[in-house]
Predict the structure.
Amino acid sequence: MSDGYRIGRLVFIVLAALLLLAPPSAAASGRCSLAGTWIGDNDAGLAFLITFIPLDPAHDRLASIAGGANDATGFGLFPTAVDYTPFQGEVKRTGRRTFDYTGLAYARDELGWIGTYAVSGSWTLSEDCGTGTVVWHASTFFAGQDPFADTPFFCFPPITGSYHRVSVVPSLCEE
């Protein structure tokens, strides 16, 4: 046998062993990840794009950033608001397909920060990990209040949303 053949056979055996030792895929284990971008809306009439970025190899903790084309005034709670920052937050895994979430965004008017939106809730992903149901509670705070310690000046009723994982698709406008 030639040295090239032996090296090729050794590389094949090592790769095969590594594949056998690799953890099962998310679909095979029933364990989903939120990593990636999601699009959806909720029963309050709000629409969001949300991106989750893993903070650990197991995807048990993720950072999130969310934005949408929504009413900056928070249904009139901040009547002078002209926009709000993207929601930024953290997610932690609570089960194979479930996660808890907290995110914050600042409401702003022409002069600056006027209040904070705080959202906490839970995600439950489908068996195929491609769709998610979200139930969250939103609260609002005036500028200067601590959204982790102070009493909010308004709490929204629970809001339920449905989101779908964004996937790469060919352009519908290509010839």
Notes: The first strand starts at residue 36 and ends at 42. Confidence is low (pLDDT under 50) at residues 10-27.
